[in-house]
Amino acid sequence: MEIWSLLIRTVFIYFIVFLIMRFMGKREIGKLSVLDLVISVMIAEIAVIVIEDTKRPLMDGLLPMILLMGIQIGLAFLTLKNRKLRLWFDGKPTVIIERGKINRDAMNKQRYNLDDLMVQLRENQVSTVADVEFAFLETTGKLSVIQKEKPQSSSSQQQSSATSASGNGSQQPPSITKLAKPFPKNFRFESLPVPLIMDGKVVSDNLESLGKDRFWLNNQLRQKGITDLKQVFLCTLDHKGKLFIDSRRTPRQ
């Protein structure tokens, strides 16, 4: 008998939580702000307590969940009309990259590290930080990237495509040829851009994967006017073999 009670409670709470999430709106499904996360966790915890304790009346879980739904819907309407209140509950986006320059203070404040940044840049199909005009860390934790415009005339595009089409069939396209030059044949290109220095420390594994050493890296930095690795916050190598350096001093071009 207790097993049937447990099964009935589980099915009942499932539909209750489903309806509550539907009434709360698609916003809670599409993204999770801090407030959304708190409400969702509390509803889940209350549902588990009611399911586990079969001696507890269902109303002990139903009423708190309805109350939380009312709080969420009420705050959603209030924040819809009041931007200050909306910013207080949801926060506001943080500028992580501005005109190709990483905002280290913003990263430290948000406890957002370089590994997170590199992962989300790759997810946005960005090969190097230098190509980014602005990057915003949204309140949901997602990175929104606005890339710099790369003007190229339509005539030059048509000419390059016509040249590659009329050439020898065994010849590789220029983009692939450029891609292969800085990297070994067995290098995993999906990891681009490749971090060489992060937080002033050399990423030795990436250097070895590229067939490079610290002597090569130091020479590249000296050409940019940098003599101390600790001056470099981030150094990456893109698919064209071009270094991007974000340092505490402006490197020579």
TrEMBL record:
GO terms for cellular component: plasma membrane. Residues 81-237 form the YetF C-terminal domain. The chain crosses the membrane at residues 6-25, 32-51, 63-80. It comes from the Bacteria. Residues 147-180 are annotated as: Disordered. It is a multi-pass membrane protein. It is found in: Cell membrane. Keywords: Cell membrane, Membrane, Transmembrane, Transmembrane helix. Residues 152-172 have a biased composition (Low complexity). Its main location: membrane. PANTHER family: UPF0702 TRANSMEMBRANE PROTEIN YCAP. Belongs to the UPF0702 family. This is UPF0702 transmembrane protein YrbG.
